[in-house]
């Protein structure tokens, strides 16, 4: 679902008992296949981006990524992520909390709705907002009278991004919180903790790494989103162009090297995100190994949040 | 144990806060422009909220100075292949306007398929001027009440400062020996054209083919339908805009012939050098008149009418025409047209008003839902 894989770093977690292990040949074959496939579909294309980016030399590369339109696209992309990620963190926390701690009617509907952005095509995610806030849309005339611009401006881009990325945090937290159950909170309550104390002292420490992980995934998608943002952006250079849109524009203007230079910038952003993700995973597995939880289920919930 | 935990937590937090800091920088310097320019908020106190530009520095200037002519920003919503034209023209106009009035003007550009760009303006993008591929797309904006009716009389020559036509771009040596429209319906020929539903260039392509077929078959519409039907059966990809089609043909190397704007074809020759592609001029083509218009509703609310009008007027000036010629459009000013005449082949051309009864009629007959294009084009067929 999330499109990213969680590595299990603790050594004793990855080794399998000898009696169910495959023959060395099969093992090598499988590892070889996986590496080959990875090289073909991930590594080579990524490297080719950088090769293409530097084809016309460092000077052109520098010019392409410091050009005002590229910088403003970078700013817009980071700004959008800086708004979308905190919003979705709050929403994800609230939704996961509601779903795992309370019983209420329509819970399954809520769970399904959270998954909706994964299910619909990004172009629909964009068009929804055009239908709502476009000049001919439901709220269009009302907004127009008040001089408020939603689509073809920052608010529309942020809305579309929030819509597309809102499942990440919630999806990460729900299984985690479910597996943890509510015993610890109940214990805290019997000791007289208030709701806020309970959240801050018990729940948050238990879920923080899952939460970070969800935020990182959310951030990765928010900086890379193309389809939905493309629909609501209006493609105004220097104003409503995000990095992915800017790459397409450069490509269409025969500026191939420049477009790959900007693409490499986006790849670097993704790499920073991946580094943060690895750091979180490393921290999680260490924490797991250190606490040496006797209950294997809790362990599953903590470390295995890849889908 | 506890302290090493803290260290790790610290490392992770530093990484995350670095990311956030970068993001916050972005928001810091962009915050101003987004609150004034992008949201279009508070048009009450300054008609120049348009001046919310990309740089924080310029913004402060706007806020601090009380000069009568603060910097102004225009948005030109245009069609696909005009990117290079307006990149050059905008610089020239800004210089001209500064000399003329002392006012700074920056022009933002948005490009895409002509039909979809028109749709964006209808959906609320605050363009000051539109420079689209054909009259109908502007007419549609006028129908939505955003541009005043009668826009086509506002500027000279039906508001079309430059013209172009449709030619064929083929691969070097013309391996499929494509000479005229007839050759496009041969079974082994793959034709690249954008989608007439979204692209203006594609509608010119289609009408040129239609005109040719009518002419060949003594005005028999059924035969013409069959002809364009066969032609579109040879189209493997319909991109939404002309530039997308050019990239499909040139970069992705799909297809044997690209039906292209003459300016777009000449530009690809320039970009990729001779020896990779050739231009084939068909026996007959169509006079494409990409028109321009002021977006009345936007310029009224933003107070930019004067500069927007000057902007479009300047397209007709000698310098504007010269830039059009340099970018392979056909200038309409006779002196400048003379200068660039060797760039173009003489072609017999259909005219939209003379031969097809104007754009509104052509659009309804061919391209609206249920029109002839819908009847002849079966996706995936």
Summarize this structure as a short list of keywords or feature phrases.
heterodimer; A: 307 residues; disordered N terminus; B: 381 residues; alpha/beta; four-stranded mixed sheet; 11 strands
Spatial extent as radius of gyration of chain B: 24 Å
The major beta sheet of chain B can be summarized as: 7 strands, mixed
Count of strand segments of chain B: 11
Average the pLDDT over all residues of chain A and give the rounded result: 83
| Number of helices in the DSSP assignment of chain A | 15
- Give the rounded overall mean pLDDT of chain B: 83
Task: Tell me the span between the first and last alpha carbons of chain A.
Answer: 5 Å
What is the helix content of chain B?
40-55%
**Overall outline of chain A:** globular
**Helical residue percent band of chain A:** over 70%
Strand content of chain A: under 5%
Task: Bin the strand percentage of chain B.
Answer: 5-15%
Tell me the radius of gyration of chain A.
23 Å
- Note poorly predicted spans of chain A: 1-13, 294-307
Describe the structure.
Chain A has helices at residues 11-14, 24-53, 58-66, 68-101, 107-119, 122-133, 140-145, 154-165, 167-180, 183-190, 195-224, 227-233, 243-252, 256-291, 296-303. By secondary structure, chain A is mainly alpha-helical. Chain A has 15 helices and no strands. The longest helix of chain A is centred in the C-terminal third of the chain and has 36 residues, at 256-291. In chain B, strands 4, 5, 6, 7, 8, 10 and 11 form a seven-stranded mixed sheet that branches. In chain B, strands 2-1-3-9 form a four-stranded mixed sheet. In chain B, helix 3 (83-101) links the parallel strand 1 (72-79) and strand 2. In chain B, helix 4 packs parallel to helix 5. Chain B starts with a helix and ends in a 5-residue tail after the last helix. Chains A and B meet through helix 4, helix 11, helix 13 and helix 14 of A and helix 1, strand 2 and helix 9 of B. Chain B: It comes from Paenibacillus sabuli.
